[in-house]
Write a structure and sequence with these properties.
With about 220 residues, this protein is mainly beta. The chain contains 3 helices and 12 strands. It has helices spanning about 5-15, 30-45, 120-125, and strands at about 50-60, 65-75, 80-85, 85-90, 95-100, 105-110, 130-140, 145-155, 160-170, 175-180, 185-195, 215-220. A 12-stranded mixed β-sheet has the order 7-8-9-10-11-1-2-3-4-5-6-12, covered by helices on one side. It is globular, with a radius of gyration of 18 Å.
Length: about 220
């Protein structure tokens, strides 16, 4: 299977659809959908720390699974770390280290928020502002849990994605699944399998330590 930089893909997917102004004449979003998304954003921002186990499944237009990966993301304030098969991403709120384990190589860059960079934190909160039109769909039930479903349409129709669906735990107000629909028929489903909040996470978690990787090649792009 082709290597999928899972969280990098998610970040690029959302960032490619974000930071567009809603053109004049376009329809308005569903107020109920906005209320749901605002509740999700407010809830997430109340957490001091978050640790989430996630999975990504890639399907083609026929519904056949093309690949899947799983990993863990840690968040604290604007700091984050993503740990997946073959790759780790560290961010101490100022610098970003992207480690490719197979190449024994790490790239270092500045986190430039003015450039509209998307962080994992934004994926759980208010990434939708000014970037999508959205409507609420019927609730669905999985096991003993009820999920609210919000469908988002990017305002920039030139993008390869025509729809994003999010499933939100109705009780905890947490996004538990995000499904991205490409125009070519491919679907990318990002699922939160478990989440713990407000547990201690040391700041050292978010800083790359070259001493742990003998012979590592450091490519500094700052």
């Amino acid at each position: 299977m082709k290597k999928i930089p899972i969280f990098s893909f998610i970040l690029l997917t959302i960032s490619s659809l974000c930071f567009a102004q809603v053109p004049k004449g376009m329809g308005k979003s569903d107020p109920e959908a906005k209320k749901i998304l605002d509740e999700v954003s407010t809830k997430f921002k109340s957490y001091k720390t978050v640790k989430a186990n996630f999975a990504l499944k890639v399907e083609n237009s026929s519904g056949k699974t093309q690949g899947s990966k799983s990993g863990v993301v840690y968040m604290k304030g604007m700091k984050y770390k993503v740990d997946i098969t073959g790759q780790e991403i560290f961010c101490d709120s100022k610098n970003v280290w992207t480690l490719d384990k197979s190449a024994n190589e790490v790239q270092v860059s500045k986190l430039d928020e003015s450039a509209g960079n998307i962080t994992p934190q934004k994926l759980f909160s208010n990434f939708y502002d000014n970037d999508f039109l959205y409507v609420s769909n019927d609730d669905i039930k999985k096991g003993n849990k009820v999920y609210q479903v919000v469908e988002l349409t990017p305002v920039d129709k030139s993008k390869p994605f025509f729809k994003v669906q999010v499933e939100i735990d109705k009780l905890t107000k947490t996004i538990m699944a995000t499904r991205v629909f490409e125009k070519n028929g491919n679907r990318y489903t990002y699922t939160i399998n478990s989440m713990t909040t407000n547990t201690p996470i040391g700041d050292e978690t978010f800083v790359f330590d070259a001493k742990k990787y003998p012979g590592i090649e450091v490519i500094d792009l700052r």
